[in-house]
Amino acid sequence: MDDVIIYTQNDCPPCTFVKNYLTEHNVEYEERNISNNQYRLEMMDYDAFSTPFILLKGKPMYQVDLDEINSILKIDN
Q: How many C-beta atoms surround the C-beta of residue 38 within 10 A?
């Protein structure tokens, strides 16, 4: 299982922010754009209805929490 999976959609500034943040900190992630119906349904299985929705080492994150991301992924700022 991937450590970081981000469900995104087009024209989503918070999605872009999270992707850029992870890239700047050399964190690999898998992006799943919900324009793909399969990914949209996967996200909804978690009762998530907005993006970005993040699976962080299998733990659902419904809103961007940089402190938690940093803690779980051991990112030092």
A: 9
